[in-house]
Amino acid sequence: MLFQGEFFTEIGEIGNQGGLRTLLLRGAQGGIVVYKEIGRESVEIFQKLKAAPHPNIAAVYGIKAVDEENCGVFMEYVPADTLDDRILERGSLPLDETRKIMLQVCAAVRHFHGLGIIHRDLKPLNILVMENGWVKVTDFGIARLYSRGKMADTQVLGTAGYAAPEQFGFSQTDEKAD
């Protein structure tokens, strides 16, 4: 796969949701990136994230058309455990570590909410925690842009146990859903 003049080869598939794949790719120079297929309706979200990067959000490097309906997003590969992995491994986290993680998550949330983006799937599996304690929020696959005046979302999306009630089509999701 060619992107920005560099050839990337597939290392492996790390996800597949509704036929849209998420792959790990290695570039000719040895760098690793995440490639996520998205519907064209989500392109504006990733364009906003690319134009306004944040240190606590996995970086978006670029977007490439796949076909009439889908695009591929090239993103930062973050070699880290998920917050879910850490909690399962340790049982609980010390208060000081929890505070450091959550302050970074809140900084990321404040940033993407400022861009009008509602994540809609913010959960421990989508929060990466690196060895040095640095946090990255990832997986904007079901994110949407807030539309003032819209009455309800048109799709039921999210993870049971984490999704807000309005994500089940009863009203429009906004910042409170995250």
Describe the structure.
- The protein is of the alpha+beta class.
- 21% of the residues lie in helices and 31% in strands.
- It is built from 3 helices and 11 strands.
- A hairpin with a 2-residue loop joins strand 1 and strand 2.
- The longest helix has 20 residues.
- The protein is globular, with a radius of gyration of 17 Å.
Mean pLDDT comes to 87
The counted number of beta strands is 11
Q: Helicity range of the residues? A: 10-25%
Q: Element order, helices and strands?
A: EEEEHEEEHHEEEE
Strand order of the largest sheet: 1-2-3-4-6-5
Distance between the termini: 34 Å
Weakly predicted, low-confidence segments: none
How large is the count of helical segments?
A: 3
> What is the overall silhouette?
globular
Query: Helices and strands: which structural class?
Result: alpha+beta
Q: Which sheet architecture does the biggest sheet show?
A: 6 strands, antiparallel
How large a portion of the residues is in β-strands, by DSSP E?
25-35%
Radius of gyration: 17 Å
